[in-house]
Design a protein that fits this description.
This protein has a single domain, classed as Hypothetical Protein Pfu-838710-001 (Beta Barrel), CATH 2.40.320. Helices cover 27% and strands 40% of the residues. It contains five helices and eight strands, in the order H-E-H-E-E-E-E-H-E-E-E-H-H. Helix 1 (3-12) packs parallel to helix 3 (116-130). A hairpin with a 6-residue loop joins strand 6 (135-145) and strand 7. The radius of gyration is 17 Å and the shape is globular. The protein is of the alpha+beta class.
C-alpha cells in the first residue's frame, strides 16, 4: 500500500497493519531513534562550538512548516511537512507510530514525497475530518553531520508557534533500518548529548506535536 493510501486509511480507520510492512517503492520505513533537548538561554553558541569540535559541519539549512492530520489511534502521528532549502521546495508525508523494541519504545517512521496536488488533497481531507484548522507550527532547522558519526544527524532547531515551549532545541537522531541495532543507536545519542552539554541532561519527553496541542 502506498504511503498516501496509508495516510487516508489512518484518517478514517483505527485498524492497523504490521508496522514493519513495506509501503511501496517511493517510501521507506525506519526506526527513528531520537532525543530532543531544550537549550537554555545563551547556550546555543557553546553547543554550536562543541559540535564543530566533534567534527560536525552544517549540512542543510531548512525552513519547515509542519501540519498534522488527525488520526484514530492515540500516539500516532501523520504529518505533512513543507521544506524550503534555499529556492528548493520539498513536500514530505510522514507516518510515525510507537513500537516496542530492544526493551524500550521508539518511533517507526515511514516517509515519502508528495506532489503539491496530493499535499493539498490530504490537507483538505484532514481539515474535513478534524472539522477545523489543522495543528501547525514552523521551525528553522540547521542539520549537522559528521563522517565520524555514521547515520547521525544533530539538528539545531529554532521553533515558533509553541507558546512557552517555543525557543531553541537540539535534536539528535539516528535512523536505524528495520533490522538495525537500536541499542547501539541509543548509546550513541547519549554519548553525543553528554559531549554537547558537558553533563548528563534529561531529554524532553514531549514531542513538538504534544507541545502544540497545549496551545491549540
Amino acid at each position: 500500500m502506498s504511503i498516501v493510501l496509508q495516510a487516508i486509511w489512518r484518517l478514517f480507520s483505527a485498524q492497523r497493519a504490521n508496522a514493519s510492512t513495506k509501503t511501496g517503492s517511493k517510501s521507506q520505513t525506519n526506526f527513528e531513534v531520537e532525543r530532543k533537548y531544550r537549550l537554555q538561554p545563551g547556550e546555543y553558541d557553546a553547543v554550536n562550538s562543541r559540535l564543530a569540535a566533534l567534527g560536525f559541519t552544517l549540512a542543510r539549512r531548512i525552513e519547515m512548516t509542519d501540519q498534522f492530520l488527525p488520526v484514530k489511534v492515540d500516539g500516532e502521528m501523520l504529518r505533512v511537512r513543507d521544506e524550503n532549502l534555499g529556492t528548493t521546495r520539498h513536500i514530505k508525508l510522514t507516518i510515525k507510530e510507537w513500537v516496542q523494541i530492544a526493551g524500550g519504545k521508539e518511533r517507526a517512521e515511514t516517509e515519502g514525497d508528495l506532489t503539491p496536488l496530493t499535499r493539498n488533497f490530504l490537507l483538505f481531507l484532514g481539515r474535513l475530518v478534524r472539522g477545523k484548522a489543522l495543528l501547525s507550527f514552523s521551525k528553522l532547522r540547521l542539520d549537522h553531520e559528521s563522517p565520524r558519526y555514521a547515520r547521525s544527524i544533530v539538528a539545531l532547531d529554532t521553533v515558533e508557534g509553541l507558546g512557552a515551549n517555543s525557543g531553541q532545541y537540539v535534536e539528535i537522531e539516528v535512523l536505524v533500518p528495520q533490522d538495525g541495532d537500536v541499542e547501539t543507536a541509543r548509546g550513541q545519542i547519549a554519548a553525543l548529548a553528554r559531549s554537547l552539554f558537558n553533563e548528563d541532561r534529561e531529554p524532553v519527553k514531549q514531542s513538538y506535536m504534544d507541545m502544540l496541542k497545549l496551545v491549540s
